[in-house]
UniProtKB/TrEMBL annotation:
Gene3D superfamilies noted in UniProt: 3.40.50.920, 3.40.50.970
The protein's name: Transketolase family protein
PANTHER family: PYRUVATE DEHYDROGENASE E1 COMPONENT, TRANSKETOLASE-LIKE PYRIMIDINE-BINDING DOMAIN-CONTAINING PROTEIN
InterPro entries per the UniProt record, alphabetical: PDH/Transketolase (IPR051157), THDP-binding (IPR029061), Transketo_C/PFOR_II (IPR009014), Transketolase-like_Pyr-bd (IPR005475), Transketolase_C (IPR033248)
Taxonomic path: Bacteria, Pseudomonadati, Spirochaetota, Spirochaetia, Leptospirales
Cofactor: thiamine diphosphate
One Pfam family, short name: Transket_pyr
Keyword Lyase: no
Entry keywords, A to Z: Thiamine pyrophosphate
Domain named Transketolase-like pyrimidine-binding: residues: 12-177
Family assignment from sequence similarity: Belongs to the transketolase family.
Amino acid sequence: MGAPSVSTSDQKATRDGYGDALHELGAERKDIVVLDADLSGSTKTNKFAKSYPDRFFNVGVAEQNLVGHAAGLALAGYVPFASSFAMFLSGRAWEVVRNSVVYPFLNVKLVASHGGVTVGEDGASHQCIEDFATMRVIPEMVVICPSDYNETKQIIKTIAEYKGPVYVRVGRPNVPVIQRENYKFEIGKAEVMQEGKDVLIIANGVLVNEAMIAVKELESRQMHATLLNMATIKPIDKEAILKYAKLCGCVVTCEEHNVVGGLGSAVSEFLSEEYPVRVLKLGMKDTFGKSGTWSGLLDYFGLRAKNIVELAEKAIRLK
């Protein structure tokens, strides 16, 4: 594992990691093309658009067309990255994603910004908390949610090499950059951030930083957790889950998503067949979001380190 991963004072949005990685890929590869639905300032594809205007396509407010155009470019041999808000890309365009991209297994990369309640003041209509579920239910779809800016850059460059459809959710707010030693993202592989024998904590996205804080608090209470950053929700890292579920005997999952259908559901589905243990889920409790600051909404909905600590203590008690 090397040195422990730590959160730093540096804060950057994962959507900025996407934009910066795209810009770098544009210089390296002429087959990379980018499509946006009139939101390039928000999705951060505008940097690519400015440098490579002949490979950038703004289709306007027409997300279904966005995905259809991306499919056509993939058939022509390009590697298209198509972006919009998570609510539109995984919701409004879902049928086109299923039938025009994933069913024919085209090499399209769907990168959705503004996922989860950390969209903030835009409110429940734009706070997509269902996208892990709707995307992972499509056969053969890869679903990813990075934890910070640096991991996002690695993910974007990795999926550019992968042949097949991928959905990546990135976020709006600036979140702590995590200092890692020799971390290399791999599709379908969890990052082991800490090892302990009392409880297995599995997190992704913005909840990884909260889980790191929780692990330190648990240590101060003489409870030792294994922490997995499960950036890839599908295909999920069954080997890591099974190994540490057996070691710890209980599991807590943490996600900025509905507890129905997301990371917690994926973990439960696997363990119920392979090694039944108690799985407690931290996430949106089957309720819509609200308008407010992103930080305030994490407090309001109980998506903080203290809530992870409470669930971990409960899971340990119930073993």
